[in-house]
Amino acid sequence: MATLSMGRKAAYATGGIAMNLTNLVISQWIYKLYVPSPETALVVVPVFGAIFFLGRLTDGITDPLIAYWSDRLRSKWGRRIPFILFGVGPLALVFFLLWMPPSPGLHWSNTLWAFVFIQAYFVLYTVVVTPYLALIPEITSDLDERVNLTTLQAVGVMVGTAVFAVIGVVIESWGWAALGGVVAGLCVVSFVPTLLWIRERPTTPASDEAPQGEQPGLITWMRLTFHNRPFLHLVVATSFYWFGLNLLIMVVPYWVQDLLGLGEGDVPILMGPFLLMNLVCFFLFNDMAKRWGKHMAFMVTLVGSALVVPALSLVGHLPFGSELVQSAVVMGLIGIPTAGFMMLPFALLADVVDYDEQLTGQRREAIYFGMQAVLQKTMIGASIFAFGLMVLGGQTTSIVGLRAVPLVAAVAFIAGFVAFLRYPLREREGKVTFIG
């Protein structure tokens, strides 16, 4: 299917709301619940950092398992929809329970609660999101249509980010359980259009398929992805970017409260400019990708992010306005290149999947999204651990650590740029060409 109606694009794109919202809320607010400060923590700081990092590792282990299962699934509903259908309810329930720790102070029960539900959340997130993303190259093969689809998905992502921006108000007004309930409900609702209006072809064992004993196993399925050179360049670049971006997401509530002296409900003051510039620039990067190609547009994303982010460390020393005004302006500037990251990597990975079919003769969409997630989520977990050491490693929140976070993020973006320099796929006359 080469083209999609706007309605079907929108139906697919709504899943981006939950995909992004749950991840952002976990990244930014879970530390604020369990470790509001070193002296009022519900879980010992290093232990919580280790639990979260272990959760990301668990996620990384399950990603290729779910991806392999999805690629090989044969059902009348297709290969991807069954995972979304049966996974989204449990995902929402686990997410809700995660925000209701059993003890109001430091206690072993909170440690056990956090361990169980963080691991469960990451497993179920993989069950739903990896097959959801694997639909992109499957539902359209047209290169421009893929950019349009991922642009519209990025709009859905930004709707999730807009909800995320006001989560601080929800917490201040109704508490942590309300946060869990609101986000869990939106998680279910946002995947309903995808389930209702996206239809896969039924998959049944093909007559020419290899006998069960001769089919590639999981290890072979995973190993083949690393024979794909474009994938290696892309996955390393995006993993470094996620390391830096997650640091920036985590720093915002601490920046607002500890550096600016405001409350949790004031987080939208910084997230608002970031979201606005994201939304405006989606269409700029959409046009850039069609004119110059996705490779060049993503290079602009990486370079622009590395150049802009360090300005956040200079807040208080910039030649205009108060620290609050400076912080808001810089966050708006950061939102410009970040827009490219919200829409381009999935379209690039869809091209990588097409190239893989040239190499192997098989459609293996999910394993690529799954293997990408292994490395990306490991880097996200590492960023959370690093954030804890930089900002929360002492008796109080470290202001020096807060100011160091943007600089570390910029270094990660530069590393991503270096990794992506030799990405060898280009669009030529509506086709993907290997030029390396």
Please provide a written account of the structure.
This protein is mainly α and 436 residues long. The chain has a single domain (6-200, 219-431), classed as Growth Hormone, Chain: A (Up-down Bundle). It has 15 helices and two strands. It starts with 5 loop residues before the first helix and ends with a strand.
Instruction: List the helices and strands in order.
Output: HHHHHHHHHHHHHHHEE
Coarse structural class: mainly alpha
Detail the poorly predicted runs: 207-213
Q: Fill in the CATH topology.
A: Growth Hormone, Chain: A
Tell me, what's the shape?
globular
Could you tell me the radius of gyration in angstroms? 21 Å
In round numbers, the mean pLDDT is 89
Determine the number of helices (DSSP H or I, runs of at least 4 residues).
15
Major sheet description: 2 strands, antiparallel
Q: What number of domains?
A: 1
Which architecture name does CATH use? Answer: Up-down Bundle
How is the largest sheet built, in terms of strand order?
A: 1-2
Q: So what's the CATH class?
A: Mainly Alpha
What is the CATH superfamily label? Answer: MFS general substrate transporter like domains
The end-to-end distance, rounded to whole angstroms, is 29 Å
Number of strands: 2
Helical amount among residues, as a percent range? over 70%
Strand content: under 5%
